[in-house]
Design goal:
- The structure holds 2 protein chains of 2 kinds.
- Helix content of chain A is about 40%, strand content about 10%.
- Chain A contains 18 helices and 13 strands.
- Chain B is about 45% helix and about 15% strand.
- Chain B contains 18 helices and 15 strands.
- In chain B, the strands form 4 sheets. A 7-stranded mixed sheet of chain B has the order 4-10-9-8-7-5-6, sandwiched between helices. A 4-stranded antiparallel sheet of chain B has the order 11-12-15-14.
- In chain B, helix 6 crosses helix 13, helix 7 packs across helix 12 and helix 16 runs antiparallel to helix 17.
- The longest helix of chain B is centred in the last third of the chain and has 28 residues.
- Classes of the chains: A alpha/beta, B alpha/beta.
- At the A-B interface, helix 1, helix 2, helix 4, helix 5 and helix 7 of A face helix 1, helix 3, helix 4, helix 5 and helix 7 of B.
Chain lengths: ~475, ~475
Amino acid sequence: MGSGNEQHLLSKIATNNGHGENSSYFDGWKAYDCDPYHPTQNPQGVIQMGLAENQLSFDLVEEWLKKNPKASICTAEGISKFKDTAIFQDYHGLPAFRNAIAKFMEKVRRGRAKIDPERIVMSAGATGALEMIVFCLADPGDAFLVPTPYYPAFDRDLRWRTGAQLVPIVCESSNNFKITRVALESAYEKAQEANIKVKGLIITNPSNPLGTVLDRETLRSILGFINEKNIHLVCDEIYAATVFSHPPFIGISEMIEEDTKFNRDLIHVLYSLSKDMGFPGFRIGIVYSYNDVVVNCARKMSSFGLVSTQTQHLIALMLSDEEFMENITAENARRLAARHDLFTQGLARVGINCLKSNAGLFCWMDLRSLLKDATIEAEIALWHIIVNEVKLNVSPGSSFHCSEPGWFRVCFANMDDETMNVALQRIHTFVSQVNGAAQSSKKKHWQRSLRLSFPSLRFEDVTTTPGIMSPHSPLVHAPI
Amino acid sequence: MKQSQLSTKATCNSHGQDSSYFLGWEEYEKNPYDEIRNPEGIIQMGLAENQLSFDIIEEWLKENPDVALFKRDNVSVFRELALFQDYHGMPAFKESLAEFMSLIRGNKVRFDPNKLVLTAGATSANETLMFCLADPREAFLLPTPYYPGFDRDLKWRTGVEIIPIHCSSSNGFQITETAVEDAYKRAQKRNVKVKGVLITNPSNPLGTTVSRSELHMLLRFVAAKGIHLISDEIYSGTVFDSPAFVSISEAITEIENYNKILDQVHIVYSLSKDLGLPGFRIGAIYSCNETVVAAATKMSSFGLVSSQTQHLLAAMLSDEKFTKKYISENHKRLKERYDMLVSGLGDAGIQCLDSNAALFCWVDMRHLLSSKTKEGEIKLWKKILYEVGLNVSPGSSCHCTEPGWFRVCFANMSQETLELAMYRLKAFVDSSKQSKVCCKSVRESMKSLSKWVFRLSPSHCDESNR
């Protein structure tokens, strides 16, 4: 495997590292896979806090399913639709599906934007949507500006098979990682200097990994910037319905309806039901473009990743049940708020702060004070300790291309309350051990003192503990 | 909006959708035949769908309500399914898919589920293989005629080229060594690097199974050139007559030192044709090449199969009683349909290529051409579309080098509709024999003809009484 001959026989894409999975950040996943936490079968295992999944509201969905057997085309109630659904492969999608998605997107935007079902294009998940929009907008070598920190898989989704490039817009904690005009211009200039053609700007709003929403001022400034440079704006709004407290989510659609001077042909929205509804397995991705040529092109490209009509049918019925969607959206937000508060307050009790956030399925945790020095190496060293000794798989900020070491993304919506409490307990223990060590040997460097703080645990013990596979933990290999 | 602001892919024509193949579809969409609501409408015979055996699936669903309700052993698995996005695919599904593929091949070969990569349809599988095996501007050789969708699937976003291997009616469109060598040389002359050969077996649009000797020839060719062979076996479960289907997985074991070329041979499969489930987007790549499997698995992130669908199909395909019954009954019904079409065409003095598989016939209408050119073929095609009211696929859309051949589908409509299509065609042929006949009277005579057929058809009466 991977011989010189074979390298020649396969494509460059197949044999390069563009998929990003050889990165050391997968160490955390591997540690989890080998030793996954289970409350009774493996209580000392690694708790998965690197997976941005929404597992909080399945009970509501399951209740709805019981009451709506015709949502499945395989039940006695739904079977009359089986044949028509099974043969339907029109890339426009089932009309009921598109209409339901459009209505839901409007609802999430509090009715402040009109979503036209004719512009909805399917893709198999947001992963497919992201790649598809790049294929539509950019040629190999063209670049997109992306504010840091950003979702790690952008490196793969936007670049691997498309040949496009990413140019980071550096954002800093000094102003809560705001996307400033200065930062935008600076990134653009850097690209120009390197003779890189910038085709567009990609923002994630609400942000992954920050969990914050963009304010009106920033959105206006971004719109002004892209208009001036005549480049595209792709807004990944996959977390739109995970906003659980003030300030409200403002979609780009709302902005351009308010202010018609912006060129709509440059605006494209990405969406999915993977985060808001917690359905990543069903592969429901959406590309919504205001540009007719792009809608046309994307629709043809969607052939490479249509949503299964079996799933379209289910989702069409579910999302068009307005009463149910009203309830689940509100309840979901309530549960996210509760979980967020439980976690951030638990961290605050031991002096750990998070970036103030009101959306997403995670917190952006500030551990800069625990770093030996402000370097990526120190961040990675701390990360290894958190994974291997505290037994929490969190994601280090450097994997999100954060310019400042010491930040970590920690997910909180993919577990039950008990597991959350165990995680908090472990963090409390860890912090008090660190504090204890620091107090007793002030002259020693933090790193050396950390070793003394865990006398009962040697690194070798951690790596040779036999893995116990929990039947309840999905062995997820797909990154984030 | 300046066109230069989008990608080249967005503004070129490589999606192939301006071809006649798709134009026929558009015309059909504007005026679709319906027994009751639009009996003068265009009958869709350009769609290779298998609608013959849904009742067998529906029967199975009725007997297996658990699956439908997101349950396994009476326990809800909804949550597990909703969260399952592992690109390795559901083990239970891959196992049952591997079993199904074996069953189709008479259990002469076994498939390892770990060598399967799941993709959103064969469309995605074929594109993914291109991304894995070729760089932009490299090429694959394809025998003509070939499925029109390949122009989009293999070339559009990948930048890969297709170089045709010309096959002709003189030997039943079989793939000869000379033709393959010729295609390879043409590539070399243009300095285009050939990365492999792609065949569809059974063939689309011919409906024939590729012979063992052709497969051996191709295997030896790719071995000698050190290139890949992809066998798109999407129609493998539709072989309704002899000769029996020979998969590349079987043929390869008959080649000397075949272990040396295992890394170069890949199979594409899907449940869209055999099971008639194109809407569910179930495709697969099978390869013994670990690097290909690894790369394709990661790429499948861009088009995974819905877990809801994997769950359903895992249960369905692991029911051996069902799969055996389905395969044999499906064959029977396909053969009946095929016979009906061939006989109906025969009545109109039209021959087909002798075929034994798939959902269509390769029909010879060369004698009806006003001129033996592509233009003559398109002229005839338009007549058939607008005057006869049948959407069939002209051979030129399949890159056939000889004008006058058409692909006509027979499994995507009711028996009555097929009979009507045959009547219309016969009427058209009869009336074209009279040299001076105006379009209007042809249409008039067909209007009254279709009403007559309508009234006489017994099963239609039954339907209206339901």
